[in-house]
């Protein structure tokens, strides 16, 4: 970012300024395995005793990891830019392909975990996808950290699972603390799946 952008970025309310984390040998594969478990958890129907075995294994994993909980901003999840979804299980496992003042582009798929019904992604995961992109658009544009004040989606077509999609977002205009942004989601043929517009508002001093 430019010196001017750095100066503006410092006016980020009371939001902590987190730093990126480096990708390690095992964390990325671990997150992908957890995503596979999420997919399986919502798609399998084994005998109940198999669920019992799975519970026991899950408890072992909980016992293994629980002692290593850390405060926000110290965990690698959500802080590794090179990983799909930045290594966060909350974020969609999409990969950022463009990140600059001209906009942000990310590609990926909605998985079985995101199923809403009849083979389509749940409509509620699209706002998450767009909102995540808008946060990156604001940052890539050198704007101060902002919160989402308004987000409107037009669902133009059924959102398929396991199909490569692209989201492209941009900053449309700035009015004081307000950043007006928009984005489009398309499939590989260019078909419009959804479009979205939002208002991102710069935090005031001390605002979380």
From TrEMBL:
Thioesterase domain mapped to chain residues: 118-193
Q: Point out the coiled-coil segments of this chain.
A: none
> Principal localization?
membrane
Lipid metabolism in keyword set: yes
Keyword Hydrolase on entry? yes
Similarity section: Belongs to the THEM4/THEM5 thioesterase family.
Species this protein is from: Antrihabitans cavernicola
Q: Which SUPFAM superfamilies match?
A: Thioesterase/thiol ester dehydrase-isomerase
Entry's localization field: Cell projection, Ruffle membrane; Cytoplasm; Membrane
Q: Which Pfam families match?
A: 4HBT
Q: Which reaction does it catalyse?
A: tetradecanoyl-CoA + H2O = tetradecanoate + CoA + H(+); (5Z,8Z,11Z,14Z)-eicosatetraenoyl-CoA + H2O = (5Z,8Z,11Z,14Z)-eicosatetraenoate + CoA + H(+); dodecanoyl-CoA + H2O = dodecanoate + CoA + H(+); hexadecanoyl-CoA + H2O = hexadecanoate + CoA + H(+)
Its membrane topology is listed as: Peripheral membrane protein
Q: Which GO terms describe its cellular component?
A: cytoplasm; membrane
GO molecular function annotation: hydrolase activity
- EC class of the enzyme, as a word: hydrolase
Could you tell me the keywords of this UniProt record? Apoptosis, Cell membrane, Cell projection, Cytoplasm, Fatty acid metabolism, Hydrolase, Lipid metabolism, Membrane, Transit peptide
EC number(s) given by UniProt: 3.1.2.2
What this protein is called in its record is Acyl-coenzyme A thioesterase THEM4
BP GO annotations: fatty acid metabolic process
């Amino acid at each position: 970012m430019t010196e001017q952008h750095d100066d503006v970025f410092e006016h980020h309310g009371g939001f902590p300024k987190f730093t990126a984390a480096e990708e390690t040998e095992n964390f990325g594969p671990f997150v992908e395995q957890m995503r596979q478990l999420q997919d399986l958890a919502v798609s399998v129907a084994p005998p109940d005793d198999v669920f019992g075995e799975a519970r026991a294994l899950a408890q072992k994993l909980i016992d293994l990891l629980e002692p290593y909980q850390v405060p926000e901003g110290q965990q690698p999840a959500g802080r590794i830019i090179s990983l799909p979804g930045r290594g966060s299980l909350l974020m969609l496992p999409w990969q950022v392909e463009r990140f600059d003042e001209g906009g942000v582009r990310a590609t990926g798929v909605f998985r079985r975990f995101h199923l809403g019904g009849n083979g389509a992604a749940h409509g509620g995961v699209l706002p998450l996808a767009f909102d995540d992109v808008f946060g990156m658009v604001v940052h890539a544009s050198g704007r101060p950290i902002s919160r989402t004040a308004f987000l409107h989606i037009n669902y133009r077509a059924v959102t398929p699972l396991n199909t490569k999609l692209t989201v492209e977002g941009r900053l449309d205009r700035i009015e004081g603390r307000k950043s007006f942004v928009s984005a489009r989601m398309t499939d590989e043929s260019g078909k419009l799946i959804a479009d979205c517009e939002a208002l991102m508002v710069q935090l005031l001093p001390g605002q979380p």
